Recover the amino acids of this structure.
C-alpha cells in the first residue's frame, strides 16, 4: 500500500516476481539498443547531426557573408557558389542570400548563423512529405552543416523558430538543385 | 508555532484511515484551486490557438496569436502544473505522514509570492504592447523580452522554492519524530524525487532568467545565446520532469485508491524513482540536438539520459503500476490472462483516470519522446508541430488527466464532499482523454509528415505541403477537449460548493487489499509479499514495446530516405 511505510521491515531483501524480472531484462536490453543506434548510425548512416560550429561575432559574420556573395556568380535563379562553401544568414525577417543554385552529387558546406536572434533553418523538399531537416540558427555561432542532394528539385528554407513579432512574415529561402556532373 | 500546531485538531479520513491535520487543508486546497483556475484560463486560450492553426478559420491576427501562445504556455506548463504540484507535496508530506506542515506561515508566504510572480509575468505580456517581443514559453535570448516578465518568472520560482523547502522540512521532521525509523511510504518517496527534480529545474531557470534579466536592463552587455538555451532547458524540460515524477507518484496513489493495489516490488519501484533523480535532468539536452556548439558525444550521452537510465525507470513504472493492479485484482479472485482487466472498476473515476493517463502517456507521449529524443531522428521534427504534439500527449493526456483524477479524490477525501455524479466524472475523463489523444495525434502527424512549424502565426502563407484535414481535426478536437475541461471544472466547483458533506472517521469500509495507516503499520502474514502471476501485465507491456520498436524503426527508415546531411 503506497500510503503507508512498507509493512515488511526487510522489503529490500524480498524477492522480485519472475514476470517483473523478465521485464527488467527486456527494459535494459531496450535501453542498450536505443543507445547503440546513435553511434552506429554515425558509422553507417548518411544523415547525422552536424557537430561542427565556430564562434563568430555578428559583425564578422556580416562581413563573411558579404565577401562570399561578392566572389559568387549571381544568376537569374540565385547565387551559384564559387566552391563548396555556402553562406546563409538568417535575420529578421529574411534569409540572405534568399536563393542558392546547387548541383546534385556535390557535398556543400552550409554555414548558417544570424546577426540578431535565434532562427530556424528548415529545408523542405517541395511537394514531398517527411522530406525535411530542421536545425537551430543561433547568433554568435557559425553552424556548419554538410549536405549532399541526390535529387534535383526545389527545396524551400523556412524559419521555424520564433524570431519576433514578424516571424510568420519571414521570407522563405530557396535551394535550387540542378542535375550535376 | 509548531507546538500550537501539534495540539491542533486532526480528523480521520473515512476511506484511507489517515489522520488529516486540519490546518493543512486550507493551503492545500487554495493551491489546488488556483492551479485549476490557471487550467481553465489556459484551456480557454487553447481554443483560440487551435482555431488559428486551423488555417481555414485562422481566427487570431499574428500579434494576438503570440500573446495567446505565451499566456497559454505559461498558464499550463508553468502555473497549473507547479501550483498543483505544491498541493500534491503538501498532501504527500503533511497528510500522508500525518504531521502538521512545518510552518503554516511559510505555506502562505510561498503561495503569495508565487501568485504575485505569476500575475506580474502574465499581465506584463498582456499589456506590454508591440514594442517588445513576446517571450512565448522559451523566451530565447537575445529577443527583446520585457524585464518585468522575466522578473515575474523569477519571483514565481522563488515562491516555489519556499514551498519546496517547506515540503522537505515537513518530511524531515516527520522522519526525525518516527521512533520506529520506518521507510517513507512509496507516495512520499516519489514526491521527494519530484521535489528534488523541481529544485534542480527551478535553480536552472532562476540562473537563466536572472542572467537574461540583467541583460535586458543593461547591466551586462552581451549574452551567449546557446548557453542561454542550455540553461533555459534545465527549467523548460526539467519542469516537465517534475510533472513526470509527480504523475507517476499519482499513479501509485490512484492504483491504491481504486483497487487497494500495493506495488509489486518496493525495491524495484524505489530504484526506478532514484534513476529519475539521477538521470532525468539530462532530458534538457533533447532541445539542443539540432543546435550548434555541442559535440556528438555530448548529444548521445545526454539524449540517452546516460544509456536510457530514465527511460528504463519509466518502463519499470509502466510494468509496476498495472502489475500492482493485476496483483490486487487477482487476490480478489479474478483469473485468466486478462480476466482481472475486464473486471477492473472501469466506472470508478480513480481507476478511469489511471487507465487513461497511463495508456495515453505511454503510447503517445512515451513512444514519441523516445524517437524524437534520438540524436539523428530529432532533425526530422525539431521545431515542428510534432514537438508540441508529443508534450500535449505527456503533459495533458498524461499528467493533467492524472491530476484531474487526484483532484476528484481531493474533493472527496480532503474537502470531504461527495462528487455530484461519479458517472459524469468517469465520462469526463474518457471524453477528455479521447479528445486530447486526437489533438496530439493531429499535431504529431502535421509536424512529422508535413513539417508544419510550431510557434508560427500563418503557416498557410508558406509554400510547404499542408494538410487542411489534419488542421481541421486539430481545431475540432481542441474544442471538444475544452468542453471536457469545462465539464471537469464544473463538476469540481459544484461538488466543492454543493456536494453532500462526507463523514469523518472512524473508517467506514476498508478498501480491498487493506489500508494500514502509517501509525498502525504491522507485518501482515496473510498477505503474500511477492506476486506469482503477473502474466497479463507482462503481455500488455510486451505489446507496448513491440509498438514502440516498430515506430522507432519506421523513423530510421524515413530518415535513411533523406539526402545526405552531416
Amino acid at each position: 500500500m503506497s500510503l503507508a511505510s512498507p509493512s515488511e521491515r526487510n522489503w529490500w531483501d524480498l524477492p522480485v516476481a519472475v514476470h517483473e524480472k523478465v521485464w527488467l531484462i527486456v527494459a535494459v536490453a531496450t535501453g542498450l539498443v536505443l543507445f547503440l543506434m546513435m553511434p552506429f548510425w554515425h558509422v553507417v548512416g548518411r544523415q547525422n547531426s552536424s557537430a561542427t560550429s565556430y564562434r563568430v561575432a555578428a559583425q564578422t559574420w556580416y562581413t563573411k557573408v558579404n565577401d562570399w556573395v561578392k566572389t559568387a556568380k549571381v544568376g537569374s535563379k540565385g547565387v551559384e557558389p564559387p566552391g563548396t562553401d555556402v553562406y546563409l544568414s538568417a535575420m529578421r525577417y529574411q534569409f540572405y542570400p534568399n536563393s542558392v543554385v546547387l548541383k546534385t552529387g556535390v557535398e556543400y558546406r552550409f554555414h548558417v548563423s544570424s546577426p540578431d536572434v535565434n532562427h530556424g533553418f528548415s529545408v523542405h523538399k517541395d511537394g514531398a512529405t517527411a522530406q525535411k531537416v530542421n536545425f537551430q540558427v543561433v547568433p554568435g555561432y557559425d553552424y556548419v552543416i554538410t549536405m549532399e542532394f541526390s535529387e534535383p528539385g526545389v527545396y524551400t528554407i523556412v524559419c521555424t523558430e520564433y524570431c519576433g513579432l514578424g516571424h510568420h512574415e519571414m521570407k522563405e529561402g530557396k535551394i535550387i538543385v540542378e542535375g550535376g556532373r | 508555532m509548531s507546538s500550537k500546531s501539534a495540539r491542533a485538531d486532526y480528523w480521520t479520513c473515512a476511506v484511507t484511515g489517515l489522520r488529516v491535520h486540519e490546518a493543512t487543508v486550507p493551503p492545500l486546497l487554495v493551491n489546488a484551486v488556483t492551479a485549476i483556475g490557471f487550467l481553465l484560463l489556459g484551456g480557454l486560450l487553447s481554443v483560440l490557438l487551435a482555431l488559428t492553426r486551423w488555417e481555414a478559420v485562422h481566427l487570431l491576427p499574428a500579434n494576438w496569436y503570440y500573446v495567446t501562445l505565451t499566456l497559454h504556455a505559461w498558464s499550463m506548463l508553468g502555473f497549473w502544473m507547479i501550483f498543483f504540484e505544491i498541493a500534491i507535496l503538501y498532501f504527500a508530506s503533511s497528510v500522508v505522514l500525518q504531521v502538521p506542515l512545518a510552518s503554516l506561515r511559510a505555506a502562505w508566504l510561498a503561495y503569495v509570492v508565487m501568485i504575485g510572480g505569476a500575475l506580474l509575468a502574465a499581465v506584463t505580456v498582456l499589456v506590454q504592447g508591440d514594442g517588445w517581443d513576446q517571450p512565448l514559453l522559451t523566451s530565447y535570448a537575445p529577443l527583446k523580452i520585457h524585464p518585468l516578465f522575466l522578473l515575474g518568472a523569477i519571483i514565481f520560482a522563488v515562491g516555489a522554492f519556499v514551498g519546496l523547502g517547506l515540503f522537505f522540512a515537513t518530511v524531515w521532521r516527520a522522519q526525525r519524530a518516527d521512533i520506529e525509523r520506518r521507510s517513507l511510504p512509496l507516495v512520499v518517496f516519489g514526491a521527494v524525487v519530484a521535489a528534488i527534480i523541481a529544485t534542480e529545474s527551478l535553480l536552472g531557470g532562476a540562473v537563466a532568467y536572472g542572467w537574461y534579466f540583467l541583460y535586458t536592463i543593461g547591466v551586462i552587455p552581451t549574452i551567449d545565446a546557446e548557453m542561454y538555451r542550455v540553461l533555459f532547458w534545465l527549467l523548460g524540460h526539467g519542469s516537465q520532469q517534475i510533472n513526470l515524477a509527480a504523475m507517476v507518484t499519482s499513479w501509485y496513489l490512484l492504483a491504491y485508491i481504486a483497487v487497494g493495489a500495493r506495488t509489486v516490488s518496493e525495491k524495484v519501484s524505489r530504484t526506478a524513482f532514484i534513476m529519475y533523480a539521477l538521470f532525468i535532468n539530462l532530458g534538457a539536452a533533447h532541445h539542443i540536438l539540432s543546435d550548434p556548439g555541442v559535440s556528438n558525444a555530448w548529444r548521445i550521452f545526454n539524449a540517452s539520459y546516460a544509456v536510457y537510465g530514465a527511460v528504463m525507470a519509466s518502463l519499470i513504472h509502466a510494468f509496476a503500476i498495472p502489475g500492482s493492479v493485476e496483483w490486487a485484482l487477482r487476490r480478489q479472485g479474478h483469473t485468466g490472462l486478462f480476466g482481472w482487466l475486464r473486471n477492473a472498476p472501469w466506472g470508478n473515476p480513480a481507476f478511469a483516470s489511471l487507465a487513461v493517463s497511463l495508456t495515453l502517456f505511454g503510447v503517445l507521449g512515451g513512444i514519441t519522446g523516445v524517437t524524437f529524443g534520438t540524436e539523428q531522428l530529432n532533425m526530422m521534427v525539431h521545431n515542428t508541430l510534432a514537438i508540441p504534439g508529443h508534450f500535449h500527449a505527456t503533459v495533458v493526456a498524461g499528467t493533467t488527466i492524472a491530476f484531474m483524477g487526484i483532484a476528484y479524490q481531493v474533493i472527496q477525501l480532503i474537502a470531504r464532499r461527495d462528487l455530484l455524479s461519479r458517472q459524469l466524472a468517469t465520462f469526463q475523463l474518457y471524453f477528455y482523454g479521447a479528445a486530447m489523444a486526437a489533438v496530439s495525434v493531429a499535431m504529431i502527424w502535421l509536424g512529422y509528415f508535413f513539417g508544419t512549424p510550431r510557434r508560427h502565426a500563418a503557416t498557410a502563407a508558406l509554400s510547404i505541403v499542408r494538410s487542411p484535414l489534419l488542421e481541421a481535426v486539430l481545431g475540432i478536437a481542441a474544442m471538444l477537449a475544452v468542453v471536457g475541461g469545462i465539464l471537469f471544472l464544473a463538476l469540481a466547483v459544484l461538488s466543492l460548493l454543493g456536494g453532500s458533506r462526507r463523514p469523518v472517521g472512524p473508517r467506514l469500509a476498508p478498501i480491498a487489499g487493506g489500508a494500514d495507516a502509517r501509525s498502525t503499520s504491522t507485518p501482515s502474514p496473510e498477505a503474500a509479499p511477492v506476486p506469482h502471476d503477473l502474466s497479463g501485465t507482462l503481455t500488455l507491456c510486451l505489446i507496448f514495446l513491440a509498438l514502440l520498436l516498430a515506430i522507432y524503426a519506421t523513423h530510421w527508415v524515413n530518415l535513411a530516405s533523406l539526402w545526405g546531411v552531416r
